[in-house]
Amino acid sequence: MVKFLVKRLILSVFVLFGISVLIFCLARIIPGDPARLALGERASDEAVAELREAMHLDAPIYEQYYYWLKDVLKGDFGLSLNTQRDVSLDVQQFLPATLELVIVAGIISIAMAFVFGLLSSKYKDSWIDGTIRVFSYIGISVPAFVWAILFLLFFGYVWDILPVFNRLSAGIPEPNRITGMYILDFCLQGNLRGALDALAHVFLPALALAVGHIFQEARILRSSLIDNMEKEFISVTTGYGIPKRKIMSSYLLKPSAISVTTVAGLDFANTLGNAFLVETIFNWPGISRYCLNAMMTKDLNAISAVVLIIGIIYMIVNIIVDIVIAALDPRVRLGD
Amino acid sequence: MTITNGNLAEKSSDTSRLLDIRGLKVWYKTYRGNAQVVDGVDMYVNQAEKIGLVGESGCGKTTTMKMILQLLNPSQIVVPEGEILFQGRDIRKMNEKEIMEIRRSYVSMISQAPMAALNPVFSIGKQMEDIVRYSGQFPKAGRKEIREICAQAVNDVMIPDASRILDSFPHQLSGGMRQRICIAMSLVTPRQLLIADEPGTALDVTIQDQIHRLLRELVEKKGRSLIMITHSLGVARELVDRIYIMYAGNIVETAETKSLFASPLHPYTNGLIQCVPRLSGGGISAGIYGYVPDYVNPGIGCRFCSRCPDAKAICAKEKPKLRQIKPGHWVACFKYEAPSAERGEQ
Q: Tens of pLDDT along B239-291?
């Protein structure tokens, strides 16, 4: 297990290096003089030349990369054109809201996927299975932003049962900042009312992000459960008189959970992308909105920071998925 | 030569019988209609007796055996008639709880596919310990005792270093080891009947031989009854006391092993015996011409009819019943029915 982890981490370093080169090149390819952009139209040519010197823009590209990487490793992404603050400060402010959103979405999608997957495989070909199947096709084929709009409309306005804007209700003060994720911060501070309010606010956007994934994962879980049910080892276990519940909950579920874990990992990373639209629709003050603004205004420092961070999150999720799979499957853990 | 009419099973009012299958028919539902895979099987097993069930692939051996443990998906099969008496009680009439009891404490079955019979994501120890734990036969045993029971079972199948094996996963073991583990699992708790479904089929010949020997020794030592399913008469001859020859869902001949080899009666049995390769040479045997019949439309006559070198007109029209030709030697073939058929005309 340790060997497996070390191997996995070493690989990740290479992936990160690749991402950083890509982002760096991207930022340099885009036309326009960053120094001029930073100082504005009316700055003198001397000032621009000075800044170019300071930013090492006249140095060869690999040297530029070296300086850039050195700063990035220190957590310094430079200034944001929009907010006129350090990009790293902006990220610290906006990222937790997005993380909270995608984590809640991930939890919803995995939990619901297991419920639906287990139900539809247990009652295979019955009306329950049929109903879930129909919802699956709808759930998978309709994109997240459409769900976001529908939820906003129905739960926010028509029935008005859940809040649809902002992260907290008006009367509730923000929690002291520990992680920046409100639900977690409230919980850590023992404020249950605040935690529930934050959860209510995050619920609809998270559900909109989760719908498609719930059903995709449920379908995959269903088919691998049904596949494994026919396997000889389940028949053998049944033959030894091990109770059905025990077979379902461990002998069948554990091997079946492997494929759904892989997909859940990919889906989770995918929610980060979908979050761009959903955050905009729900006016969620997360990193996506910040990044969208940056893209509109060619705020290169901000863009490269966000892209790099999304890349890192992607990688961390993948490592977690690999660890979960290794825990589930001894063939992966111990090598074939 | 004494000839007795009647059903083999009807003669068995003996209550010492551990297992008694009477007239069992099992049909699989298919899109073309019902495949009549098991077509009236009669067989019994006495206490501490070793039985061989011999026939080619697809003749219904495994289906019959899976019926004993009720392992076939009820939505895929039809059982038009038949009884499976275990210690005098019909398994088919048992409720879920009683069937679980049979599976837990009385009968175990070794799968024919050691590669597929073990769960890939659980350790050998965990799988074996669960069998012991849920058998209900060691209610007071703690974790440690259960582990010891399993280690003993692993030692019994001649695997050294039981503790390491219990901690390993199926993919870390060779085919022969896995088959031994399957045997160890089937014997880890005391059960009266062990069904071995072609153990060793997936293994190479020398290992196969070891496995068979081991199985026989363990069964004899522990006084269990054994039903050995195999497609090889050679294997059956080495291992069992009594043999049932099955062809396309019918028992066509049954006798004590010695009697069967001394005077095989059914043409199919003869064909099978000729299929056993001899080391003394003679090349590849002629085999048996033709194929197993279509189970959806098997016809009304003897199912071996189209492949039988001795087929007569009656064979296609009527199904031969098992008749006792010699004490304990029964055969279902019109070849041996000529006198009685004539008598039947009177």
A: 999 999 999 889 999 999 999 999 999 989 988 888 776 666 656 666 677 77
The secondary element (H helix, E strand) that includes residue B239 is helix B233-239
Tokens of B115: 């590669």
Residue B102 contacts A where some CB pair is shorter than 8 Å: yes
Q: Where are the alpha helices (DSSP H) in A230-299?
A: 232-239, 244-246, 253-281, 287-296
Specify the DSSP class assigned to residue A175. P
Which positions ≥6 away from B102 have C-beta within 8 Å?
A: A241, B69, B86, B91, B94
> Rounded to an integer, what distance in angstroms lies between the CA atom of residue B330 and that of residue B43?
11
Nearest alpha carbon to residue A308 among A14, A16, A8, A9: A16
CA-based radius of gyration for chain A? 24
Q: Do B171 and A331 touch (CB under 8 A)?
A: yes
- Beta partners for residue B26, in sequence order: B38
The domain A90-286 having CATH identifier 3.40.309.10: the answer here is no
- The model's pLDDT over B6-51, given as tens digits with 9 standing for 90+, comes to 444 444 445 578 999 999 999 999 998 899 999 989 999 998 899 9
For B40, phi then psi, to 5°, come to 85, 65
- How far is it, in rounded angstroms, from Cα A280 to Cα A286? 9
Coil vs helix vs strand at A65: helix
Q: Is B75 on the interface with A (CB under 8 A)?
A: no
B345 CB burial (10 A radius; 0-12, 13-18, 19+)? exposed
Considering the segment(s) B107-190 as one domain, its CATH architecture is 3-Layer(aba) Sandwich (3.40)
Contact B111 A236 (CB under 8 A): yes
For residue A4, what are the CA distances in angstroms to A15, B14, B167, B285?
17, 62, 19, 53
- What number does CATH give the domain B9-95+195-345? 3.40.50.300
Q: Which pair of tokens denotes residue A186? A: 């409230």
- Locate B214 and state its tokens: 């081991």
Alpha carbon B203 to chain centroid, angstroms: 19
Cα distances (angstroms) measured from residue A328 to each of A251, A259, A265, B119? 12, 10, 14, 12
Nearest-CA distance from B62 to chain A in Å?
Answer: 13
Per the rule left: phi > 0, alpha: psi between -120 and 50, beta: everything else, B84 is beta
Angle at A287 between CA A88 and CA A63, to 5 degrees: 40
Written as six digits, the tokens of A131 are 């109903």
Tell me where in chain B the CATH 3.40.50.300 domain(s) lie: 9-95+195-345, 107-190
> And the tokens for A26?
């991207």
Structural domain boundaries of chain A? 90-286
| CB B277 within 8 Å of CB B285 | yes
Q: Which of B77, B103, B119, B123 would best serve as a mutation to test chain A binding (most A beta carbons within 10 A)?
A: B119
Q: What is the ipTM of this complex?
A: 0.84
Answer whether A240 sits within 8 Å of B103, measured CB to CB: yes
